[in-house]
Specification:
Elements lengths: L1 H52 L4 E9 L13 E7 L2 E7 L5 E5 L3 H5 L9 E6 L5 E11 L6 E7 L4 E13 L3 H15 L13 H4 L4 E11 L10 E6 L2 E7 L5 E6 L2 E3 L9 E6 L5 E8 L6 E16 L3
Antiparallel strand pairs: 1-2, 1-8, 2-3, 3-6, 4-7, 5-6, 7-8, 9-10, 9-16, 10-11, 11-14, 12-13, 12-15, 15-16
């Protein structure tokens, strides 16, 4: 009996040890599996992030954000900078509000003080405000480590003190090279047409259009400046003794004179926009004019073109 009891106890101990070993083995397998999954997840995430932020080489317009109202992009740029990607390396050019920031550093203020060779030198950028006023400010080319992520830069002003800031770059949009496309199209056309042949729009005169003396309306198109100023269309067109005069009404009352040819014309009214009466030497071409604005502290002349569309000429309603 004693022998039987001893054998039974030994068998039970063996079974218990085997079960525990199985449990430990299963636990180890789960641990290894979880570890493998844990190691794989960051790699997958990194790949996803890389695919989200990777841009093809090219030039983009991108939003540039900072942590300070004292350090930000010029208002004329609408918060946007020019992002250049070359060989996968990103750099953004931003125009600031003045020349008060004289250097910039990619990193912290402490690092900047020990690395003068790394100071980013300014460029002189010309910006044009909504009313056409133009000003020269400082701009900087800043390395961009990643999109949609904050990174450190330091700035130093005219007083010689470095300050820490964080910035970020986001929402890149590829800039279409319209001029390049136009050149390409012109080149393709040149294969069929005579080399050097230029197509010029035909100007039309009062005489060629057979316009009699009287008052008409005509559709006008303004181009030039920042694109924010405009003129009323249709405009009033007067023909007298074979000469054409147009009444041009600006969307702003801040224009104090216009220049057409070599003659200066003053406004006939500034109550609801600046109103001018200017000669029209021909129709159906971009007639060059200059207008002076006083919206800013200093007057500024802006070059425009006005297109008078002869196909839209109609008798003025009485």
């Amino acid at each position: 009996m004693v022998t039987c009891i001893a054998l039974a106890a030994a068998a039970a101990l063996c079974m218990t040890g085997y079960g525990a070993q199985q449990a430990d083995s299963a636990s180890d397998e789960e641990s290894v599996s979880a570890s493998a999954e844990s190691e794989a997840e960051p790699e997958d995430t990194a790949d996803d992030n890389a695919s989200e932020t990777m841009l093809e080489d090219g030039v983009y317009q991108a939003e540039f954000s900072t942590d300070s109202s004292m350090f930000h992009i010029n208002e004329a740029c609408d918060g946007m900078g020019t992002l250049t990607v070359e060989d996968g390396v990103m750099t953004i050019h931003v125009s600031l509000v003045s020349k008060n920031i004289v250097n910039l550093y990619y990193g912290t203020a402490e690092e900047a003080q020990e690395d003068e060779a790394g100071w980013i030198q300014p460029t002189e950028d010309e910006v044009t405000y909504s009313d056409g006023y133009t000003e020269t400010v400082y701009g900087f080319d800043i390395p961009v480590p990643a999109l949609d992520e904050e990174f450190a830069v330091a700035i130093i002003g005219t007083k010689g003190t470095w300050y820490d800031h964080t910035v970020s770059v986001s929402d890149p949009v590829l800039i279409e090279d319209e001029d390049g496309a136009a050149e390409s199209e012109a080149g393709e056309a040149g294969d069929d047409d005579a080399v050097g042949e230029t197509v010029v729009a035909e100007k039309k005169s009062v005489e060629s259009l057979g316009l009699e003396d009287g008052t008409y309306t005509i559709e006008v198109t303004l181009e030039g400046g920042t694109g924010r100023a405009d003129i009323e269309s249709p405009a009033t067109l007067t023909i007298a003794d074979g000469a054409a005069t147009a009444q041009i009404t600006w969307s702003s009352s801040n224009y104090d004179y216009m220049i057409v040819g070599e003659e200066q014309y003053l406004p006939v009214s500034t109550e609801e926009g600046s109103v001018f009466e200017i000669p029209v030497d021909a129709f159906d071409y971009a007639m060059e004019v200059t207008a002076d604005t006083t919206a800013m502290s200093e007057p500024h002349e802006i070059d425009y073109t006005i297109f008078f569309d002869s196909a839209t000429i109609a008798d003025a309603e009485e």
